[in-house]
Each structure stands twice: as structure tokens, then as C-alpha cells.
Specification:
The complex is a heterodimer of chains A (239) and B (313). Chain A is mostly helical. Chain A is built from 11 helices and no strands. By secondary structure, chain B is α/β, with parallel strands linked by helices. Chain B is globular, with a radius of gyration of 21 Å. Classes of the chains: A mainly alpha (239), B alpha/beta (313).
Amino acid sequence: MTYARRSLRLYLANRSYVTLIPGGILVIMLAMSLVIGVAIGMATEFPLSAQIQEGMRENNGGAVYSIPGFLISLGALAVNRNFAMALAFGSTRRHFWLGTLMGFALTSGATAASAVVLLALEKATNHWFFGVYAFDVAALGKGDYVLTFASVFVLAVLSLALGALFGTAYRAFGTKGALLTGLAAAVLVVAVTLLSASNKETVGSWLGALGVWAAVVVAAIAAAISIAGSYAANRLARL
Amino acid sequence: MTSHPPAGTPSGIVLEHVTKRFGRTEVLTDISAVLPPGRIYGLLGANGVGKTTLMSLVCNHTFRSGGTVLIDGEDPAENPVVLGRTCFIREDQPYNDAFKVRDVLSAVSWFYPDWDAALAERLADRFHLPHRTTCKKLSRGQRSALAIVISLASRAAYTFLDEPYLGLDPSARGIFYDELLLAYSEHPRTIVMSTHLIDEAAGLLEEVLVLHEGRIVLRADADEARTSAFVARGLDSAVTALVGHREVLSERRLGSILSVTVRGARTADDESRARAANIALEAASLQELVAAIGIGGIGGVDTESFTTQRTSR
């Protein structure tokens, strides 16, 4: 673990970048939701009507959509920026990958914790005083703290792992390799979607059995595949 | 077969029939050499002969196409203990773009238990490295200085220096020269250094390996290598007469002046004939020797006769 911890420290060297910014993005998303809420309120009434509040609660997926962009790029940059340094300083690929993965877990934990804190604030302020729903939403489990933490954590891990997969594929196979990896990922998603569509009942019953955890489990499986892929590519990455 | 020393004991670097291909291009061909520990090796040769690639293979930064690499009796590939004893900052070493010099020096200290922070500080000051500048904004010379600071302060048992002089001004090169010898004498280690500035580095090197067209064509003690050829410079006809049938490794003409690098040691007879004919005789420098190999190529130079320690067994 000593060897992996060195790469973890490398990942955490720019601490605010990997721990605070993801939470900051959620705050920005909240600010945007508040602006939209104010605009709606000015056109209608304050606090927002029950119907509008319910609509926001069901449809505001900002917390989900705002996270992946930054974290995918963070994952790709992490495996590229630090890889050459770690190897130069005598690290193995395996320990670099492990240390970076530990860093991803910390970033994801910090992001999920931010979401939970913001959810608690949202509830404590009676939805920001005039009925805006940003975290107490259907996409995150309608105010369930555990589900909110798990959803954001898994989504963050998936985003970082996807970024790491593309970044490592680039290191291992060059630009064409990264493009092919993207293509393979797209084909996999389409294939799974088509298979699910043609077996609607079976897949529906599986997801039904998982209940509110279905999205979290699906994202976790995708994250596991991305992590396995980045590990395999990492063993072939070179300078 | 070579009998390998027990794993873990400091036994240097062993290369056996190491080959590297990029696609259809063979960059390194059947490289075999034993580098005992605790010496300073010069890895010399023209651009593109595979010096950096060879060091990359040893440190497992890139993968060999064939052959065996051992450090202290163990394969370094994904071997944390062995790789932990290496430090290899490439000439074009990428750093995290967001890192400042001080961040890099801080980060590297996490990787080396014997990191000499005081030495790093002193070297950074001597090279006037700007601690608060991001690595991507460093000049060529500052990047070389940073690589030198990291390499020497790491106290890695196997330190690889890739063109450490690049972009350094003469005074900085002098600092490097002094500090390398000081660091080496205080904490002996194995240093492998590739360089183009051969004559300037010659005083540092204990042994040289010259690469040409992907092969080690010369392996010699640095002092012995310098006496294995000489240069004669004078009027064309006089020099030609002096050299006679001896093998000329390279020759340059400027009007009627001819300068030739001749294989072998010069004799007392050569000295007296040269004095009489106004010919300047001097030992070939390492630079001239390597240049001669580069010009003559394997076909033009019988490099076997220069090899004082055979590299292939």
C-alpha cells in the first residue's frame, strides 16, 4: 500500500481541484436552479406553487447532469498528467493505477458528501425558502440521504473511471486507440440498450426487483467495467 | 547462459539480447551488456540511435520486444522494489501542467525514502530555478536543471540522466559537473547518462557505451577509449604519408589541410615524423571517436577492436 499511497499523494497534490471543485459544481447547479426558481416565481408567485414544486422535484436532474463533464476530464487528466511523473519516480503502473483509483474514491466521496450537505440544507430551509428542488429530487432518491450519497458517489466514480479509461487507452494505444475505446463503449451501450429493449419484461423485472437502487446498481456495473478496462489498458500504457 | 546473482543484492544492470521494435522499425537490436553497480556510464551516439529508448526499457517505461533486463538480479517490469531504486527523468519529461517547480520537488520526495531535501534546495538555488513557476513555463535549460535536481537529490541507486546538459549555459554545466561528482562521491550509485556533449561530459564518465544503428558498437573504459585512436592534422600529402596504410576512421579537409582520426595508438616514430612534417598529433577525444563511428558506421569501423570489455557473451 505504501507504493500506491505515493501516487495517491500525487493525485491529491492539487487538493482543492480534486476535492472541492466537484462540490463547487453542485453549488453552481444549485445557483442555476435558484435563478430558474426565481424567474418562475416572478412570473407566477412566491413561494412556488405546489404543482411547480412537484414538477421540479420530479424533473430537475441538474445534480446528475452537472457532474460527469468535469469528472470525466478530471479522470482523463489524472491518468495522463501524473502517469509520466509517477513512472519517472520509480512507480509501477499497477501502483500508479491503484493510487489514482484511491484518489477517485476520495473525490467521489467528497462530491457525494457535498450533495448530502446541500440536501440537508435544502430540507432545513424548506427548499431554499420558496420551494426550489435541486437535491431533494427524484433523480437522487427524493430526499433519501443514503440514496443521494450512493447515487452521486457511483456517478462520480463512473465519470472518473470513464475518463481514466479513455486517458489510459490514449497512453497505451495512442489517439486511434482512444477513439476505438470510445467507439467500443458506444457500441456496448447501444448493444445493452437494444438487448434490454428486446427483453423488456425480463430486464424490467430485474430493475423492478432493485427498486430505487436500480440506477445506482446499473451505474456501478458500468463503473466496474470502466475500472477493469482502465486497469487492463494501464498495464500497456507507455511513455 | 549467464549466472545471475541472487535477487536483491546490488549487482547492477544486466541486458541480454534486448530488442525493441516500433512497428516494423527495429530501434534496438540484440543489446547485451553487464553494467556493474557503482559506476558512471556514458551512453553515447548520434540522434535516434536508441539511447533514450534503451534507458526507457531498463526502467520499464516502454516495453521491450525481446530479451531480458535485470536490475539487481530481478526483472524491473512492475517490480516496485526494483523500480523504486530507479530515477529516470527523460529529456522531454512531461510533468503535471498545473505543478510548479516546488510542487514537483515536493512530489518527488514522496517517492524516494532517501530524498535529500537540502541538496535539492541547494541545487535549485544554484541553478536559479524559479520555485513558483509552473513546469510548462520553464525554459529548456530550466527543465534540464529541474531534471538534474530531481535525479541527484533522489539518491536513487540507479540514476538515469537523459541529455542532462540540454539548454544549460556553460556556468550551469559547470555546476552540474561539480554537483554530480560530489553527490556521487558522497553517495555512490550507478549513473547512466546519455549525452551529445561528449567532450564536456568525458571527465565524468568512467565507462562509455556507444550506440550505433541500435547496437552497442563500442564499450570501453573512458580513458582507454581516448587512447584507442589519434588525430593527425596538417598538409594533405604529409598526413597521408604519415598515416600510411593504417585505418582512417574519419577525415575532414579544409583546402589543403587534412585532419584524420586514425585507429590505434600513436608511436614515438609517429611523433618524430609529425614534428618534422609540421603535423599536429593528439589523442582522439571521445567526441571525435564517437563522431568517427557515426560517420564510418559499423561497416566503416571495426568496432570490435575498440571494445575493451566485450558486451556480448
